Amino acid sequence: MTLSTVPPREGEGARALDDLLLYRLSRLLGVAGSMVIRLCEGRFGITRREWRLIATLASRGALSSSQLAAHAQLDRARTSKAVGSMVAKQLVSRTQPGGDRRHVLLSLTPEGRALYDALYPLVTVINAELLAVLDDAHVKALDEALEALQRRAETLVAAAELPKADRRRGRG
């Protein structure tokens, strides 16, 4: 397997998915991320999305729903649904500063903070075990490469003129 950096030329045969960065990252997340999902769902009774939102609130403090969605890089509809579930589980609270009903802040409850404090070290161990195969120089290079790829992806998305998603298209 070698990552491909050039698109196929016209008439060139099919290439393997394993040559594509996004596919390889997806496979890595699928395998390694499954351990985090099992911890979240099996031991803590939350979804991976709820974990992401809890971790975001733990690191950033109280946020509006829109801010939370933006920081967690999730769409607002899914964030709203997850927030409703976390409020029902008493992991997140909604407050209206100054009594303004239009402005709601979300924050972790003591139960949400306790969950974060119990789960975060376990996720850290999974990450450390995964990175243990690399020496310090490779970890640093990977970190720098991921930062560069993130910046490039954000630039590409901002400049892209792509059609809206329509999952019904193509069905007959």
What does the model show?
The protein is built from 6 helices and 2 strands, in the order ααααββαα. The chain is mainly alpha-helical. A two-stranded antiparallel sheet has the order 1-2. The longest helix is centred in the first third of the chain and has 24 residues, at 21-44. The radius of gyration is 20 Å and the shape is globular.
Please specify the SSE layout and strand pairing.
Layout: H1 21-44, H2 48-60, H3 65-72, H4 76-88, E1 92-95, E2 105-108, H5 110-131, H6 136-159
Antiparallel strand pairs: 1-2
Low-pLDDT residue intervals, each spanning 5 or more residues = none
Q: Strand-residue fraction?
A: under 5%
How confident overall, as mean pLDDT?
90
Across the major sheet, the strand order is 1-2
- The strand count comes to 2
Based on Cα principal axes, name the global outline. globular
Question: What is the chain-wise order of helices and strands?
Answer: HHHHEEHH
Helix content: 55-70%
- What does the main sheet amount to? 2 strands, antiparallel
Q: Any idea what the radius of gyration is? A: 20 Å
How many H/I helices?
Answer: 6
Report the end-to-end length measured between terminal Cα atoms.
Answer: 36 Å
**SS-derived structural category:** mainly alpha
